[in-house]
Structures are given as C-alpha cells and as structure tokens.
Design goal:
alpha/beta; Rossmann fold; two-stranded parallel ribbon; 15% strand; 10 helices; 316 residues
C-alpha cells in the first residue's frame, strides 16, 4: 500500500511511518524538515501548492498530522499560528485531493478529543458527547482550543471529494515511550518525585496506548464504511489522581508531591505552556471503535503504564 503522511516528522508520524514501513509498504512523509527514517520525504510549507501534490496521486491512505504544537503560551501570535497551521494545511490538502485525476481512497485528518466539553459527570462519545465552548466557567484558553478543533474539522469537510473517504481523528493523548511525547513529560515528573495529584485530581484523563493507536488506525483503514469523527481513546479514562498514582506504581516511585491549581498556573508561565493540558477534564470514550468491535490490547491504564515504563527502561 501507499501511505502519505503530512507532518509526519513528529512522534505520532514516526509511530505510523515505522510500523507501515516495516511491513514493506511505501511511505512518503511530507513535512517542513527531513525526518529520521528510511521513508521517502517531500518538502512543503503547509500552505503553498508544489511538488508534494504528486505524492497524493493514487495513494491508498493520506494522513494529515500537520499543525503547530499547542505546548506553548496562548498569546496572540501563538494562537494565530496554532489555528492557521491547522486550517491552512487541511485546506491545501483538500484542494490538492480535489484536483487529483486518481484521488486517494482515504484521508485521515488529525483532530483532538479537546473538542468535547469539560465534564466529569458522564463520558463523551461520538453519538451523545457534548462539544465544548459553551461552558460558562471555561477559561478563554479552553474556548480557543475548541474553536481551533471545530475549525480544523470544518476545513476537512470544505471540498467535495466523492471518491475519498474522510475521517476526523479525535485523538486523546497518545502514550508512547519514545522521547519528546507526553508520556516522557509525565514520567520525568514521577522520576523526580513530582508526579503527584494535579489540581484537585478529579479531572479525567483520556489517553491511548501507542500500540492501540496504530492498531486503531489500521482498523479504520480496513473498515470502509466508517467516516466522520472518530474518538481514538482508551475506553477507560480515569481521574488524574488515580492516573498519576498508577504511573508512580508502575515506575516504583512512592513519593509524588501534589500540585495545586495555582501552583500549576505559576509553573505554566515559567514553562511557557498552558494548564489546560492538565486541568481540563477530558472524559472521552471510543464509541465507534467499541461499536464496531475493536479489541483494545491496553484498555486499562495500570497495564498500559506498566508496559510503557518497561519499554522506556529498555530504550537504547
């Protein structure tokens, strides 16, 4: 099969590229910088038409992961970059697919589980989940993230592409032992005795094990009747206090200093990030995957954390 990965030089792109390439498939990464790996590379700027468009012709699967990292302070410049990098790249790909004489069969477009409202009372699935943005108590930064997510998915639907199936990947945090990802950040806190309860600890954490993430993508590729938004998350989200406790247990760390909300706000300023990544309650479950019979290898965090810690220790 022929796979084309936009923005595939990051951690998530590397997960998919490694797996598909190892099976003998043809993988082309379209990104601003050359990625590490044996796959083909085509440069682009995320907006301008160019030679990258030829990679789409006759492709089996196109995956768009392009977009500026949200791990930053949400000032005016960064907000514009976060929004525009996602919407502009999605529109550019849509226009390029529309112009293909032989368009790709499937377009998997990155989205985010952050699109759902901050809630603890019940989980959000694709059928009954509540989209966020209307919560009266939500900080402006949370409302902005939801605005970005909705604009991202709207851009996916703009072009008429009758020959190309489209799926918006509403992904939770992908947990992988590879460096540079969210698991590495959380594990670093645990290793230094700082991985205690964050905020009041009642906010839910939605996550997915990296191997289930890749398997779920493969499942969606094969399930030709599935289209539209799909949640990529473990079926068992859990409150932050239990999440961090299980991670400490998996690593063998007894100490975990807690951090109150105001402490996190101060720390976020110095780390140049936003507390939304920690304090918003993301209680998301994969309704479509469960309905279609997808079998999670790592549905519960205790088992997943143990595997991730073991693999982290085994890294070269």
């Amino acid at each position: 099969m022929r796979y084309v990965l936009f923005g595939g030089s990051g951690q998530i792109g590397a997960l998919l590229a490694r797996e598909w390439s190892a099976r003998g498939n043809q993988v082309t990464v379209v990104s601003r910088k050359k990625p590490d790996g044996p796959w083909n590379w085509v440069a682009w700027d995320g907006v301008t038409p160019g030679l990258w468009q030829s990679a789409l012709e006759g492709a089996d699967v196109v995956v768009n992961l392009a977009g500026r990292s949200v791990d930053c302070r949400y000032n005016h410049k960064n907000r514009a970059s976060i929004l525009n990098s996602r919407v502009d790249s999605t529109r550019a790909i849509g226009k390029a697919i529309a112009a293909c004489p032989q368009p790709p069969k499937l377009w998997l477009q990155s989205s985010t589980a952050t699109i759902y409202s901050d809630r603890r009372d019940a989980p959000n699935d694709e059928f009954t989940g509540i989209l966020g943005g209307g919560e009266p108590s939500a900080p402006k930064s949370w409302v902005f993230s939801i605005k970005v997510a909705k604009a991202w998915e709207d851009a996916l639907a703009e072009e008429s592409l009758p020959a190309t199936r489209r799926i918006a990947l509403r992904s939770a945090m992908v947990m992988s032992p590879d460096p540079g990802g969210v698991f590495s950040v959380l594990l670093r806190l645990v290793r230094y005795g700082l991985g205690g309860t964050m905020g009041d600890g009642g906010q839910y954490v939605s996550w997915i094990h990296d191997r289930d993430f890749v398997r779920a993508i493969d499942f969606l590729i094969k399930s030709e009747h599935i289209s539209g938004p799909v949640n990529l998350a473990s079926p068992l989200p859990l409150p932050n206090a239990r999440f961090m406790s299980s991670l400490r247990t998996a690593w063998g760390q007894r100490l975990g200093l807690p951090a109150t909300s105001w402490m996190l706000e101060i720390g976020a300023v110095f780390l140049r990030t936003e507390t939304e990544l920690i304090l918003k309650s993301r209680r998301v479950i994969p309704g479509i995957l469960l309905k279609e019979g997808f079998d999670f290898q790592y549905p519960d965090w205790e088992k997943a954390a143990a595997d991730l810690c073991r693999r982290w220790r085994q890294r070269p």
